[in-house]
């Protein structure tokens, strides 16, 4: 069975410092992996995606993530946090086998950015 | 933004009453999904559809039913709402030709008293 574990439920950084949100996954197949962001009382927005091409994936707003198969990780990073980055972030794995298109979500990491 | 709307956006109802949530897309995509979001659980799949009249269960389908009579509309029904169904409900569509990239609607906040 596939699963996703976000290692931190809450991360707090100061504005201008690096961001690291950690995600480990479990998948029997070649996975597709995503990071979504949800600002307060808003819907989910796709930040970036890994779909078996380059292992270092760049997304919107300066975020990037690196797929490491040996570590089964897909950590999200950003060199310099901005106040507008404060939100909840979800690491997501998708089944590739079959055709149902089910997404499996991690529990989420709340990012707090302090001035 | 993908053309997905949800209605209503907010609803308060009482235990035992039926409730129907609507998801409408303008993208003509084949796959549509209903998720619920609860603190500490991320989003969990309730039901999904892979075409008109073609639906299947997700991981938390008990107490919910769905229907899809047109490509653009996917309805989620709570036959008899319970307090445990208080949640935020999101609809999503799957972009064709991608490895399951999904776009989400704005959500419906449902409170069952």
In short:
The complex is a heterodimer of chains A (115) and B (113). Chain A contains no helices and twelve strands. Chain A is mainly β.
List keywords for this structure.
heterodimer, A: about 120 residues, mainly beta, six-stranded mixed beta sheet, four-stranded antiparallel beta sheet, 12 strands, about 55% strand, globular, B: about 110 residues, seven-stranded mixed beta sheet
What does this structure look like?
The complex is a heterodimer of chains A (115) and B (113). By secondary structure, chain A is mainly β. Chain A contains no helices and 12 strands. In chain A, strands 2, 5, 6, 10, 11 and 12 form a 6-stranded mixed β-sheet that branches. In chain A, a hairpin with a 5-residue loop joins strand 5 and strand 6 (44-50). The radius of gyration of chain A is 14 Å and the shape is globular. The mean pLDDT of chain B is 94. The interface between A and B is medium-sized, with 25 and 25 residues.
Q: Which residues of chain A sit in consecutive blocks of at least 5 with pLDDT less than 50?
A: none
Count of individual beta strands of chain A: 12
Number of helices of chain B: 0
Distance between the termini of chain B: 33 Å
| Relative strand content of chain A | over 45%
**Largest interface, Cβ cutoff 8 Å:** A-B, 25 and 25 residues
Backbone structural class of chain B: mainly beta
Number of strands of chain B: 11
Query: Element order, helices and strands of chain B?
Result: EEEEEEEEEEE
The average pLDDT value of chain A, as a whole number, equals: 91
Provide the low-confidence segments of chain B as ranges.
none
- Give helix % range of chain A: under 10%
- Residue share in helix of chain B: under 10%
Shape category of chain B: globular
Count, helices of chain A:
0
Q: Compute the average pLDDT of chain B.
A: 94
Return Rg of chain B in Å: 13 Å
How large a portion of the residues of chain B is in β-strands, by DSSP E? over 45%
């Amino acid at each position: 069975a596939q699963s996703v574990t976000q290692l931190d439920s809450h991360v707090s950084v100061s504005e201008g410092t690096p961001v690291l949100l950690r995600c480990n996954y479990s998948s029997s197949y070649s996975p597709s992996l995503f990071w979504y962001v949800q600002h307060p009382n808003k819907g989910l927005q796709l930040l970036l995606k890994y779909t078996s091409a380059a292992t270092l994936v760049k997304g919107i707003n300066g975020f990037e993530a690196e797929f490491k198969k040996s570590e089964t990780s897909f950590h999200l990073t950003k060199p310099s946090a901005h106040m507008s980055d404060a939100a909840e972030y979800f690491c997501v794995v998708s089944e590739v086998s079959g055709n149902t298109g089910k997404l499996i979500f991690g529990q989420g990491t709340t990012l707090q950015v302090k001035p | 933004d993908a053309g997905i709307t949800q209605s209503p956006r907010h609803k308060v109802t009482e235990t035992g009453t039926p409730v129907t949530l609507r998801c409408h897309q303008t993208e003509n995509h084949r796959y549509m999904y209903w998720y619920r979001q609860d603190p500490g659980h991320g989003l969990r799949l309730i039901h999904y559809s892979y075409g008109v009249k073609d639906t299947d269960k997700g991981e938390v389908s008990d107490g919910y039913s769905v229907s899809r009579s047109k490509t653009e509309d996917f309805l989620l029904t709570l036959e008899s709402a319970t307090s445990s169904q208080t949640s935020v409900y999101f609809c999503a569509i799957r972009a064709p030709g991608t490895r399951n990239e999904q776009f989400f609607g704005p959500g419906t906040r449902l409170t069952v008293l």
